[in-house]
Amino acid sequence: MTSTDLPEQDAPRYVRLTIELIAEITDEGALKAAALTQVADDEYLEDDERAQAVEAIEVDPTGSLAHFVDPVALLGDIPGVELASATWESASTDYDPDDESWDEYEVQ
After folding, report:
1. Residue ranges of region Disordered (predicted)?
2. Whether the model pTM is above 0.85
3. 75, containing H or E segment
4. How far apart are CA 56 and CA 45, in angstroms?
5. Each residue of 57-69: pLDDT tens digit?
6. What pLDDT digit, counting tens, does each position of 34-49 carry?
7. Rounded CA separation 99/55 (Å)
8. CB atoms within 10 A of CB 95
9. In 3D, which of 54, 88, 57 has the Cα closest to residue 71?
10. SS (H, E, C) 25-72
11. What's the CA gap between 22 and 20, in Å, rounded?
12. Apex CA 47: angle with CA 35 and CA 51, to 5°?
């Protein structure tokens, strides 16, 4: 790579940051109640978005957990970085803590 191949110093550079978390829901009722409260208190949600969020929470606890993911909080205090885009999803998984193939994901 030559110096002409490098991006200009002032040109924006984008980085895709991929994070995978596996969370255990230990109290579905508490999670659901907290998610419903958060949705009710979110002043930026339109009525139709709020209704969709409540429905997702009622149907599946993974819908509840998604309301607590905040990519802005992950990057907000890092100097020289601005969040350009964020998407995320939550879904049930067949995680088995006793399966050794999952060891690379264990929290140390």
Report:
1. 89-108
2. no
3. helix 71-75
4. 14
5. 998 878 888 888 8
6. 999 999 999 999 999 9
7. 34
8. 11
9. 88
10. CCCHHHHHHHHHHHHHHCCCCCHHHHHHHHHHHHHCHHHHHHHHCCHH
11. 7
12. 50
Q: How is residue 23 written in tokens?
A: 């969370």
**Amino acid found at 9:** Q
Q: Scan for tokens 């339109």, then name that residue.
A: 46
Residue with tokens 């006793």, as numbered in its chain: 98
Helix, strand or coil, per DSSP, at residue 98: coil
Q: In the prediction, which pLDDT does 102 show?
A: 65
Contacts of 20 (CB under 8 A, 6+ apart): 105
Task: Copy the structure tokens of residue 19.
Answer: 């994070």
Q: Amino acid letter at 34?
A: A
Q: Is 63 exposed, middle or buried (0-12, 13-18, 19+ CB in 10 A)?
A: buried
